[in-house]
């Protein structure tokens, strides 16, 4: 199983980023995929989930600003992040369902 995140970077407050997670080694289309983040000095925080039927959930701090989606033809899950805030600064991880398997993470820094 492999999960590879990309798309992080430095962005000003109010800006946007799109994270991608390319998955392999399991049946992607039938799997729940999640995004979580870890800010400096804090624990892992769930951000969003997308289920095999494409239904989604979002943590309260990101509702209305982040959108999760998936492309089963590419085995890829995305996280579109708009109206970014300094408190969104964290390492963002892609996670396979409830297995705990996650990628290496991608750094998102929101700063002026």
The share of residues in extended strands comes to over 45%
As a whole number of angstroms, the C-alpha radius of gyration is 13 Å
Helix percent band: under 10%
Helix count, DSSP H or I runs of 4 or more residues: 0
SSE pattern: EEEEEEEEEE
Distance between the termini: 37 Å
Which residues sit in consecutive blocks of at least 5 with pLDDT less than 50? Answer: none
- Which structural class best describes the helix and strand composition? mainly beta
**Major beta sheet summary:** 6 strands, mixed
What is the residue-mean pLDDT, rounded to a whole number?
97
Strand adjacency order, main sheet: 2-10-9-4-5-6
Which word captures the global form? globular
Overall strand count: 10
List the helices and strands and how they pair.
Blueprint: E1 2-6, E2 9-11, E3 17-24, E4 33-38, E5 44-50, E6 56-58, E7 66-71, E8 76-81, E9 90-96, E10 106-110
Parallel strand pairs: 2-10
Antiparallel strand pairs: 1-3, 3-8, 4-5, 4-9, 5-6, 7-8, 9-10
Descriptors:
six-stranded mixed β-sheet, 112 residues, 10 strands
Write a short abstract of this structure.
The protein is an all-beta fold and 112 residues long. It has no helices and 10 strands. β7 and β8 (76-81) form a beta hairpin.
Structural overview:
By secondary structure, the chain is mainly β. The protein contains no helices and ten strands. The chain has strands at residues 2-6, 9-11, 17-24, 33-38, 44-50, 56-58, 66-71, 76-81, 90-96, 106-110. The chain starts with a strand and ends with a strand.
């Amino acid at each position: 199983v492999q999960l590879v995140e990309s798309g992080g970077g430095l962005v000003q407050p109010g800006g946007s980023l799109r994270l991608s997670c390319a998955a392999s080694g399991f049946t992607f289309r039938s799997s729940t995929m999640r995004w979580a983040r870890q800010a400096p000095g804090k624990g892992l925080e769930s951000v969003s989930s997308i289920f095999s039927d494409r239904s989604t959930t979002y943590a309260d701090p990101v509702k209305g600003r982040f959108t999760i989606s998936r492309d089963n033809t590419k085995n890829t899950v995305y996280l579109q992040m708009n109206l970014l805030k300094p408190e969104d600064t964290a390492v963002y991880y892609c996670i396979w369902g409830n297995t705990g398997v996650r990628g290496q993470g991608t750094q998102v820094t929101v700063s002026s």
